[in-house]
Each structure stands twice: as structure tokens, then as C-alpha cells.
Amino acid sequence: MKNFLLTAGMALCALAAQATANITGYWTTIDDETREAKSVVQVYEYQGKYYGRVVELLKNPGAKAKIKGSPAIKGLTIIWDLEKDGDTYSGGEILDPQKGKVYGCEMWREGKKLIVRGKIAFLGRNQTWLPNTTFKGTEEKPTPKKPAL
Q: Distance between CA atoms of 44 and 25, rounded to whole angstroms?
């Protein structure tokens, strides 16, 4: 009985850790310079990989991306091809739509926060995204479309 309870307790702890490592959902991005909320990004799984698209711009809602065709940032896929590797999601890319630059991307959870790392080789920087509980979007998981760069 003691072994059963120990095993059950360990299984519950593993499930709890797994649940907190999930990156899907709506996230509020924070501006690096002003420290203000900037946008809402939906991170979702599609065919075993993870993608993110901007679903709301909190500042300058009509902003255009500095990429081919100057599409609106709202609705733009900015994260693509991340793969789960333990508690980290890596191997994908992230677009900075304001600069028109693409970086390697890694993500992981630290408590309720999502740490997003954009990098070139071993150099990079982290952003902290916060869970967004106020965005009233749909639970639709769109088909990702990598923007024309």
C-alpha cells in the first residue's frame, strides 16, 4: 500500500509538472523598452509542432510588419516549427515584425511565465510573456502560414 501511494504521488507530481510546461494559449508580450503590454500572441500546436500568431495589438493596432508586402502585424504568424524537447520547445524561428528580422527560437515555462528566447547562434536575448486571461478569442487553431520574408 505504501509503495502504491508513493507511486501515485510521483505520477501526480509528474502530471503537474507536465501541465505547467505547456506553452499553448494566449500570452501578453511585454515591450523591452517601455515594459508595457504590447500584444497578445496565440501559441498553438499544429501537426506536432508549435506556432504563434499575433491576435491583438494593444498599442498601434494598425501597425504593419517590415517584411515583404508590409502585411498587418495583427494576424501574422511570428513563430513557427518549434518542437517539444523535454520542458523546452526549440528548433523553430521567431519573427520580429517591427524589424523584419528572423531569429532562432526557444521557449520554456518558469511558473506561470513563458520565457521566449530569440537567438543567432549562441547569442540571444530573452523576453518574458505573461498569461493573458482577458482576450476573448476563439479556441480555433489556425493553419500556420509562414510569412513571405
A: 7
Residue 90 β-bridge partners: 83
pTM comes to 0.83
Instruction: Say if CB 29 and CB 35 are below 8 A apart.
Output: no
pLDDT, tens digit, 9 for 90 and up, residues 105-141? 999 999 999 999 999 988 999 999 999 999 887 767 7
Residue type, 105: C
**Overall fold of domain 20-131:** Lipocalin (2.40.128)
SS3 2: helix
Nearest-angstrom CA–CA distance, 67 and 149? 6
**What one-character-per-residue DSSP string does 52-119 give?**
EEEEEESSSTT-B-SSTT--BSTT-EEEEEEEEETTEEEEEEEEETTTTEEEEEEEEEETTEEEEEEE
Beta bridge partners of 96: 101
